[in-house]
């Protein structure tokens, strides 16, 4: 999933991309994708839009939720994918993912 704006975070072992597609004829769509390492298989990851958003309207704030497995899992690190999509024409320049503190530049496709 390498992209020109991939932002690896060595401490958290995550990689993120953000693309805002404004090509006609459809609506604008922002897509944020990540690969996040978890300590065991079975984690459920999802992204939600933070509420409230920050003071800079050009930065989209997202919250990464990690739900640990409830059963017994093998003890080895795995990489899980997570995605956020939103139909929008807001010209975001960056996406910030909390609580990890990762900031990703948005690639705009016009």
Description of the molecule:
- By secondary structure, this protein is mainly β.
- It has a domain at 1-34 and 73-110.
- It contains no helices and eight strands.
- It has strands at residues 14-21, 29-38, 44-49, 59-67, 78-87, 94-98, 102-105, 107-109.
- The strands form two sheets. The protein has a four-stranded mixed sheet with strand order 5-2-1-8, with no helix packed on it. A four-stranded mixed sheet has the order 3-4-6-7, with no helix packed on it.
- The radius of gyration is 15 Å and the shape is elongated.
- The model is unreliable at 1-12 (pLDDT under 50).
How far apart are the first and last residues' alpha carbons, in Å?
21 Å
Unreliable stretches covering 5 or more consecutive residues: 1-12
Helix run count: 0
Largest sheet: 4 strands, mixed
Beta strands, count: 8
Mean pLDDT value? 87
The sequence of SSEs as H and E is EEEEEEEE
Q: Into which percentage range does the β-strand content fall?
A: over 45%
- The SS-based structural class is mainly beta
Order of strands, widest sheet = 5-2-1-8
Report the C-alpha radius of gyration, rounded: 15 Å
Quaternary organisation: single chain
Outline of the structure:
The chain is an all-beta fold. The protein has strands spanning 14-21, 29-38, 44-49, 59-67, 78-87, 94-98, 102-105, 107-109.
């Amino acid at each position: 999933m390498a992209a020109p704006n991939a932002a690896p975070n060595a401490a958290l072992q995550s990689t993120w991309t953000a693309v805002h597609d404004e090509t006609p004829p459809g609506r604008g769509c922002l897509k944020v994708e990540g690969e996040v390492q978890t300590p065991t298989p079975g984690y459920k990851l999802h992204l939600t839009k933070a509420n409230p958003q920050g003071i800079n309207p050009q930065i989209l704030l997202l919250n990464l939720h990690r739900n640990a497995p409830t059963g017994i899992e093998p003890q080895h690190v795995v990489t899980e994918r997570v995605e956020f999509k939103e139909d929008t024409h807001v010209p975001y320049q960056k996406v910030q993912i909390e609580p990890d503190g990762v900031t990703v530049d948005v690639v705009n496709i016009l």
